[in-house]
Amino acid sequence: MDNTGDLIQALRPVLAELDRLGVRYCVGGSIASSLHGAGRSTLDVDLAAELNETTALTLARGLEREFYVSQVGVRDAVRRKACFNLIHLGTSFKVDIFVSKDRPFDHSVLNRATLVSLDDNDTLSARITSAEDIILLKLEWYRLGNETSERQWDDVTRVGKVYGDRLDQPYLRQWAKELGVADLLERLLENIGRQ
Hints:
Oligomer: single chain
Radius of gyration: 16 Å
Number of domains: 2
Number of helices: 9
Distance between the termini: 30 Å
Largest sheet: 5 strands, mixed
Strand order of the largest sheet: 1-2-5-4-3
Number of strands: 7
């Protein structure tokens, strides 16, 4: 993973504030897929969090000295259960906070996330989305993007190949059906020879 120093510098205060507020979170997106074997450089980090308007605005206020953050954007994201951005002033690294949609799947993702060191020196650990859940989330994004993102498909293929037979296929199939991506999962499993 490139830009690890900037990632650590930008993510450390966000995680500290989430922990202080007692907010459950997990890191997903390209950071999680990189940690699961589909490495690529990135200038942002995706983080899912169980936020309501009070905790989201408290988070934003707690970070406003180190980050650019729009209070209006935070309120709107909480209302729509969408995403708001934090831009770290020291590094320009972007932290995208995805407000939990509060679906059973979202709770499962947070429950299954595990604590992982983000660098070789163990200076920062974070709860990371499981391999199965990163596959499911990226398949969902792939579907929402009209199945045109080669990057999303490449990420799930690489994670799938790295994990192979260690993937929990019953779990994948259960949630893929719920998320409306069962056909994409079967295509992926066929492509990586794991059907």
